[in-house]
Design a protein that fits this description.
alpha/beta; Rossmann fold; 7-stranded mixed β-sheet; two-stranded antiparallel sheet; 7 helices; about 30% helix; globular; binds S-adenosylmethionine
Length: about 260
């Protein structure tokens, strides 16, 4: 794990290549996964109040930064992809009085700490920690950047159910009185942290690098930075169709500065 940091340049290069594709697929309102799985639970845990100063970590094309403003926040948003920040500035053209966009590498403590000291009420990292090679500098810096009792909400691909080489399975069984279709996930790798290639969106130009950390690793690093856990959500799609509606695709955690 200690050598994952050497993959940051490669991971950034891939996000630069994928930036326009991601921006196009997310569009103005992001995809169903963000709208139905990530946003409602993240917003419930963040509990934004009018005028709060929010840090949006690894903001991508800025769609959630806009949403944070709509909820009453004043936002500083950053990403290490120059191309995504360019896209974000275009997407958020009418919000630039309330959002400051910056290019910052979340693995670089010194860059992060330049944002200030105890100046944010809340921080959020949507679907990003599993894309970041080393989350220690980020957790330590966010602890410093937050005001006393500040909140940090992060969402990640659920480490128990969305991990390296995981398979999605749909089985159909004829039970006589009815034919039952069940969906499941098959898990092969969970406990060992791993860097691996994957596709966040099918058809993206190049695979991105993921950094799988089991739940214990993710939380121990958060505790070591000084945070306590004050909220957790495991959202699922609300549908009758064949979906993995018993297996949450994402995990959303609220950390609080102790
Ligand atoms: C799955 S996207 C999520 C983007 C956005 N938060 C959203 O929810 O739409 C992951 C983002 O993490 C960013 N990222 C990955 N590693 C990073 C790093 N070391 N520093 C800053 N951003 C990083 C990528 O450029 C990408 O925009």
């Amino acid at each position: 794990m200690s050598n994952w940091i050497t993959t940051t340049d490669e991971s950034k290069k891939r996000w630069e290549t994928n930036a326009d594709f991601w921006d196009g697929r997310m569009g103005e309102h992001s995809n169903r996964f963000h709208r139905e799985i990530i946003r409602p639970s993240t917003e419930a845990l963040l509990e934004i109040n009018e005028g709060e100063v929010i840090l949006d970590i690894a903001c991508g094309n800025g769609n959630f930064s806009k949403r944070l403003v709509d909820l009453g926040g004043r936002v500083t948003a950053f990403d290490y992809s120059v191309n995504l920040i360019e896209n974000a500035k275009k997407r958020c053209a009418s919000y630039l009085d309330k959002i400051t966009f910056k290019v910052i590498d979340a693995t670089n403590y010194n860059q992060l700490i330049e944002l200030g000291h105890e100046c944010f009420d809340k921080a959020v990292a949507n679907m990003a920690l599993m894309d970041i090679a080393d989350i220690n500098p980020l957790l330590n810096a966010v602890y410093e950047l937050l005001k006393s009792n500040g909140i940090f909400v992060f969402s990640v691909m659920h480490p128990c159910f969305q991990n390296p080489k995981m398979r999605k399975i749909v089985e159909t069984e004829d039970l006589g009185e009815r034919v039952e279709t069940r969906s499941a996930v098959q898990i092969f790798n969970y406990i060992t942290p791993q860097c691996y290639e994957g596709n966040g969106i099918v058809g993206q130009p190049v695979p991105q690098l993921y950094y799988h950390r089991p739940l214990s690793e993710l939380l121990e690093q958060s505790f070591r930075a000084g945070f306590v856990v004050t909220g957790i959500k495991e959202p699922v799609f609300n549908t009758d169709k064949i979906e993995w509606n018993e297996v949450p695709p994402a995990l959303i955690i609220r950390l609080q500065k102790n």
